[in-house]
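Listing S7. Sequence submitted for prediction.
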Amino acid sequence: MTLGTFTSANMREFDEYRLGKSYRAGQSVVLSELYAEKVDSDADFNTVSWQAYRVVNGEPDFSQPVAVDGSFVMEESVAILFSSGSAGNRRISLVEAVLYEEPQITVEGNWSLSAGNENTYVTDDAITLDSRYAYPVVTYTWGAKSGSFVGDYYDSGTSGLNDLKVAYYTEENGVYYLHAVSREVSDFTMATDYRLVVYEISNIYGEKQYIYFEYTANGVNDTFFSVTDDEAGNGTMYDSGTLEEDTNGALLGAAASATGYLNAENYLDELLSAHFERRLQVCAFVLSAVS
C-alpha cells in the first residue's frame, strides 16, 4: 500500500531499512540472485567477489569472517560484502542474508485468529449496521523492527491511523473493493454488511505481511435515530444520534433539533418549496391524464 494509491496529500513517516533478505532454515541462498535483486540486476556477476561475516545480535561482526560458496543452504545469518569494479572505480555493497523470524503481533480487545487461518482475526462481539467501532489496536515486533499504527502523522496534534499502512475492503457480489481509511480517525461507522480491515507490517528489510480483521454485521443498530423531512427517512437529515440506555437496559429519550437547518431566514422558503413541489406533482398528474 502507498499513499499514491488513495490520495496526493502529504504525510510524514520515518522508517529505517537495511539491505538484505530473510530466508527460512534449509532454504537455498544463491548469491548471484541476491546481488541482482538487492544491488544491481544488470551486473555481470562473474566480475563480483564477496566475503561473508557472521551476524551477531542483529549486527555484522567483521571480526568473524565466514566462508560461503556462490550457493549455500541457510543455516545462520550472515552479512555479505560484495565488491565489483576495478581499482579507483570499485563498488562495495553490504547485503544481509538472515534467518527468517516470525513477527510477534499483539492485538488488543476481543480478537482471535480465525480457525485454519494464520493472518485473519475475528471477534465474538456483536456487530450491527450503523454502529461505530474502533479500529483494532495493533503493535508488533518483527526481527529488529517494532511498529504500531496510531500516531500524529500530519503535525496537527490529532492522533489517527497510519493511512499508509491501514486500509479496508468491502465486498459486493463476491468482488472486493479497496478503500482508504479517513485521516486522523481511530473509529468508523459500520455502513455495510461486511468490512475487512487490513494492516501492513514490515521488517527492517522492507519485507511485508498483511493481517486482516473481519467485521460482519449480524443486525441493525436499533438505537440509531435520525430526523429528516421525508417519511421514508431519505430526505434531508436535520439531526441524528444514538439512543442511550439506562442501567436496566431501557432506552432513554433523546432531544433532536432542526434549528441548524430551519431558521427564520429559510423556514418560509422550505414551506413554499414543499408547497409548489406538491402542486407541480398534481399538475403533472392532470396533464398526464388529459393526454
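Caption to Listing S7: primary sequence and predicted C-alpha cells for the chain studied. Confidence is low (pLDDT under 50) at residues 275-291. The chain is about 10% helix and 40% strand.
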